[in-house]
Please model this.
Amino acid sequence: MDDYRGAFDPRFELGKLSRRTLAVLAREYQLAAHLQDRAGIPQVLARYGARAMREIAIDEWMGASPVYTQRMQRALRFAGDDVATIFKGLQFDVGAPHGFLDFRFRLDADGSGEFWLPYCGALMDVEPMGESFVVGMCHQIEDPTFDATAVATNARAQVRPIHRPPRVPADRVPHCRWRVRIEPDATPVVEIALTGQVRRSRLARLALPRAPEQRESGGLRDYAGRFDPDLQLEDLAHPALLTVCQEFCIQGHLLVRSFMLAMAERWGDEVAGEIAALQWVGIAGLAAERVVAALGIDGDGLDAIAKLFQVHPAFHPRAYVDLHVERAPDAVRCWIGECAAWSEGDPYSWFARLGAEPHRALETMAQCVNRRARCRPLSVPGARVAWSVVIDPDAEPALEAPEVALAKLSKGATFRFAPRPRSHVPPL
Model:
């Protein structure tokens, strides 16, 4: 299946998509998990100011990235303790979505390495906000979070800037450049307590089902071999791509958990839940629009809405979120059964916000296909939550949710992926 045009398939699963389409979808899932911060962090800024925003962002990424980096190492079989392993992890990190944060890499003969970004979409988002926001992201946030990502591979890894923004001159390219070394005599980086909380979740320990046998020939079944600085997702085999799609969604959910835990520690569960609900609405709509366009889901009817719910990253992997989607003559019926998402025993996920009344995020997704779509409560035997989606021809077309409009301030909202040329090492 090269896209998801045509009739709604109630038996659809990601594994039915072709290698080419899975690569497209994986990039969208990676970018969606990255951009959910653009829907959540500004809410912290608005309530508590720039310092609190930076502190939450640091804790969020430090809490989640070591956990999901090690998951990806196991999933693609590239565990190790060297710089090459760190770089492999960055290639499969939602903090570095391919192209939007255009990480390029070089390994040196002494075992160290460099990475640089000819283009950084995150910098493009904050440069218009002024130098203090640039310093906040490129210095105060990145210093601890880069080391926290590296500690998943080696506690004595050090990531240090060669140069970084604010850019001098103002159009400097690459946008930043960093050196990574393993320093045997360095004081080892210690995981923060929040990382341990995230690691103990059901989500962090979730076992994905074994990928089906390869449905198409070609590609790498894992990343146990040499580091390839120019690796593209299209280089992976079908089962590996299916795994990466699911792991990118897990990375997004782990970041939500870390984000909420960091906020709850400071301001309590109620505030964490309120801000996470706004975050979900914002990224629900933005991700919906991008996935619909990327997969060629056409039309504005119920079939298109049903297909969107089947592929939206919020509901993957199915091993965690047991979502069911079916078509009735005049509605789309959705429900989530008993699954690991309900077994965390705490309120630190989007799913903990679901109840009898459909969450605004669900209606926001549907309205990205048809502005007259409305979600209504539904009762399904055995379901933990259920909702239906109808298209009301008499309803006023819904306006874009303000949370979605906020997320769309990011350049990532309109970013278009393109094949990348091979790495060229820029002069210092």
Observations:
- Strands lie at 104-107, 113-117, 157-163, 176-182, 323-328, 331-336, 373-377, 385-391.
- The chain has a mean pLDDT of 95.
